[in-house]
Amino acid sequence: MSDVENILKRIQSHKGVIGLIVMNSDAMAIRTTMDNSTTVQLGTQMQSLMNISRTAVRDIDPQNDLRVMRIRTLKNELVVVRDKEHS
């Protein structure tokens, strides 16, 4: 099993984790544990939100960049991590 597989398995095993989506730079799911419609909906929305937030960070400081975004709602928590290879 690859390092990536081990990391994904470890994340998925945490209490309360209901799903995992790994996307490429075009917001296409590479791996997902969620149904297709949820994957497409979340992927599209998170890519859009990440891009808007990244622009805001770079407007404040052009030498800075957004790497991780954590969103907590009343019901859920989303963690979005941007890989430097896909910037």
From TrEMBL:
Any GO CC annotation of this UniProt entry: microtubule
A Gene Ontology annotation in the biological process aspect, one of them, is: microtubule-based movement
The protein's UniProt keywords, in alphabetical order, are:
Cytoplasm, Cytoskeleton, Dynein, Microtubule, Motor protein, Transport
Localization, per the record, is: Cytoplasm, Cytoskeleton
Tell me where in this chain the Roadblock/LAMTOR2 domain is found.
4-87
What protein family does this chain belong to? Belongs to the GAMAD family.
What's this chain's function? Answer: Acts as one of several non-catalytic accessory components of the cytoplasmic dynein 1 complex that are thought to be involved in linking dynein to cargos and to adapter proteins that regulate dynein function. Cytoplasmic dynein 1 acts as a motor for the intracellular retrograde motility of vesicles and organelles along microtubules.
- State the name under which the record lists this protein: Roadblock/LAMTOR2 domain-containing protein
Q: Which organism is it from?
A: Intoshia linei
